[in-house]
């Protein structure tokens, strides 16, 4: 038996709560497992609602158990508080009953005539029966007059009556309930004992009191649990109907909507929209439907926008190349379905001439405005059936059906070119006279595949641009063959780099006054092996250098030329020959590679003195970016190398850039030298270049010297240096070294060869 009955009750409540918590955890685990399973909603509306609102479904809900647990614990807590108060009252009631039982047992035993002071009102015989038959275990009898102990019986009492000796006042002790609950000491006053002049302290057996209190606690706990469960159940039924069922319905609806937001499979609400929860559900259903409509609207708008971005040019609003190709394919399919009278149509490719210059000089906003204006003019000037598309940055593509009224494809191309050049385009209060290059092809004349026809029009356009722009070119199979040859040449160039088929030849340069060899120009040669008797053949630089420049291969090729030439010049330097090496630099090398760093690295690698290296650059290269050109040339000059302008007189020949550039030498183009003896204009140009160079303290070298007369002319004009076939053609390094060793230093020695 517990010493603390209340603790027993609390312990039992805790055990029950622990059981509830474990059950809640089990339900949480089960709920999460069910959420992980993907279930389809393929049942009818009524069946869905029965499943959602079934008691089993509600009581399986984690939310339901949370609410149940909170409600149950709340009710239980309140009842535990009430019980803690009533336990004390129950114990006091039992003690009062015990007190009355003891009094009832004592009063009949009091001797009625016992009023003599100092004598006990009880007899030993009666006391023996009392302690045997009742719960009285002991007595202490005190006189009511002075509080003196008269006599004790049985077990001694724990409490006693005290008397103040000074005042004579009697002090009665409080009733005492032992800590172990086995006895209860109580004071009976004379009044309680029927008016007898005695105080009696009785020690009563109270062991049954705690048993009754414990029984009371157990009964109360059972009642509490039953009441809590009943109230919770009733409350959960009400909550399930008014709160949980709407929540589960809303959750089920949201799950359905999340699986297919665009076309949600949602059920009509069975709840009254007039109350708060039903109204909220109705509002949520309206929002889900509205969201579905918005998604459809956004999707349709996005699809339209994607289609527009995919098939139309954002700047001009015209069809783009993709839509243009689809359109001409559709036209071709219509032709295929009616072979008896095939439809013919022209495909025109148009490129705006020098459009990059407009963008660079006037800004992209002006360029964009011109493109819009061109597209608008073409669209308004051509028949409604014509398709006008923007196929590239500055390119347009047009297709027009060829009928008796339109004429040939070339006539259509000429009309388009005339539309563009008919009058200037006015942009931001400025007039721009625009010209175009036009490529023309026809279906099915130039191909039965529309894609091929457009490709052929592009090929014709490229030929028009190559031949000077502002030109119309009609497709020819020769153009295609030229493109194929160019492509094959490009592949062969890459193979030549990998297989080291390039060679470097050297043409000597002479001082016209002293006759000594002062330099050599490095010229690349390509020996392409084949199955011929000779084992291969040379490919002219005129054929492969332009393709190398356009493709960018000239950069690695140029670096190889520079490195190889510097190694050769370093070998001459080591042999004691003061011969500089002249290397040509293309525009791609000048602008697309770090030329300064490359030259510096090669000089260090080969050990060649910078003064023995000369880089030759054509005038046109400088004009692309004057600021960059000046800075690059200055950086090269600071390395100590020499710089020459190649083919001087064929380009800009501007005195302004000659003053800005750190140039050491002018090289007269060979065309002026060859014709100088027969053409006074060429002779005058050569003479002017020599004098111009000398006036600027520059050396002048003439190339293309083929005869003694050419040499005499240049000597008369005081040209500084010469090179040409009169002295030697470009030869391999080994032959050059032999030529250098055999040369006697006199230019007259070449008279015998000629």
Beta content comes to 15-25%
How does the major sheet shape up? 8 strands, mixed, barrel
| N-C termini distance | 142 Å
Number of strands: 24
Helix content: 40-55%
Principal-axis shape: elongated
Rg (C-alpha, Å):
59 Å
Oligomer kind: single chain
Strand order, biggest sheet? Answer: 15-16-18-19-20-21-22-23
Query: What average pLDDT do the residues reach?
Result: 84
Number of helices: 24
The residue ranges in which pLDDT falls below 50 over 5 or more consecutive positions are: 27-46
By helix and strand content, what is the structural category?
alpha/beta
Could you characterize what this model shows?
- There is one protein chain.
- By secondary structure, the protein is α/β, with parallel strands linked by helices.
- Helix content is 53%, strand content 17%.
- The strands form 5 sheets. Strands 15-16-18-19-20-21-22-23 form an 8-stranded mixed beta barrel, surrounded by 4 helices.
- Helix 1 runs parallel beside helix 6 (207-259).
- It is elongated and about 185 Å long.
- It starts with a helix and ends in a 12-residue tail after the last helix.
Topology record:
Blueprint: H1 5-36, H2 45-53, H3 55-59, H4 62-106, H5 124-133, E1 136-143, E2 149-154, E3 162-163, E4 170-171, E5 176-177, E6 183-188, E7 198-205, H6 207-259, H7 276-311, H8 321-337, E8 345-352, H9 355-362, H10 364-381, E9 387-390, E10 395-401, H11 409-421, E11 425-427, E12 430-432, E13 436-443, H12 450-466, E14 472-474, H13 477-499, E15 502-511, E16 517-529, E17 536-539, H14 541-551, H15 554-574, E18 580-584, H16 587-592, H17 595-606, E19 613-618, H18 619-624, H19 626-638, E20 642-648, H20 655-660, E21 665-668, H21 670-675, H22 680-695, E22 699-703, H23 708-716, E23 721-723, E24 731-732, H24 733-742
Parallel strand pairs: 13-14, 16-18, 18-19, 19-20, 20-21, 21-22, 22-23
Antiparallel strand pairs: 1-2, 1-7, 3-4, 5-6, 6-7, 8-10, 8-13, 9-10, 11-12, 15-16, 15-23, 15-24, 16-17
Helix pairs in contact: 1-4, 1-6, 4-6, 6-7, 9-10, 13-14, 15-17
